[in-house]
Amino acid sequence: MAAGYQAKHGERLTETARAWGVWRIPEAEVRALGEVDGRDVLELGCGAAQWSIALAGDGARAVGVDLSGEQLRHARGATGTLPLVQGSAEELPFGDAAFDLVFCDHGAMGFADPVRTVPEVARVLRAGGRFAFAIASPFLFMCWNPKTERVDARLHAPWFGMRSDEDEQTIQFQLPYGDWVRLFRTSGLVVERLLHLRPPEDATTTYDDYVSLRWARDWPAEDLWVVSKAAA
Fold first, then answer.
1. Residues 6+ apart with CB under 8 A from 136
2. So what's the pLDDT on residue 7?
């Protein structure tokens, strides 16, 4: 799927490299990452590494990791110097306390099991480090209509017991908010902020088969979590 994904979304992702979610909410407005200059930064599910390339230009020592070798091939075509690693967010191929900042814009935090990814992120973060990631919201998860393959204004899935949903191509993981908070705390992480990424009225997206602008203006379609590891 990598070639088709980059053909449809790659140009927009490159043009808006420092932005979050399907509506590309600028990091300059959100300020989820903090200072990156001189920091060791890991991007989970980096794809073609548009984010990491941009952050490296801002002075970060950025590393991209992705399970897909094809996605990494697209990344290597865009940069010859950024370290790129093929691996799973559920079992990160890095030593303990290797990074000051770990982040993910959808990708790995939706496709991988959070019960495994969150402790792994905590392991590779240094004391005082930050973890920021955007993910589809539980509301979108509950309102996804499997018959129309669109999000609508009715509840189709239960809140309690929310865990994963899969089709013939992908699996998506999701948790209720209380379970996210519990998982962070048991992993040694503290919630700093939870932002609902509401798009502006004139927002556009290349993910037009995902959720409508009207829906995303009325209800939270994407969440941005910012959590940190306690200082030593």
1. 106, 110, 172, 174, 221, 222, 223
2. 85
Contacts of 24 (CB under 8 A, 6+ apart): 12, 16, 203, 205
Domain 2-229, second-level architecture: 3-Layer(aba) Sandwich (3.40)
The rounded distance, in Å, linking the Cα atoms of 79 and 68 is 17
Domain limits of the chain?
A: 2-229
Q: Bridge-partner residues for 194, per DSSP?
A: 225
Q: Residue 202 burial (CB < 10 Å; 0-12/13-18/19+)?
A: exposed
Would you say 189 and 228 are in contact if contact means Cβ atoms under 8 Å apart? yes
Phi, psi at 29, each rounded to 5°: -85, -40
Specify the 3-state DSSP secondary structure of 113. Answer: coil
| Band of residue 109 on the pLDDT scale cut at 50, 70, 90 | very high
- DSSP state, residue 89: T
CA-atom Rg of the chain in angstroms = 17
* 203 contacts 21 by C-beta, under 8 angstroms: no
pTM of the model: 0.94
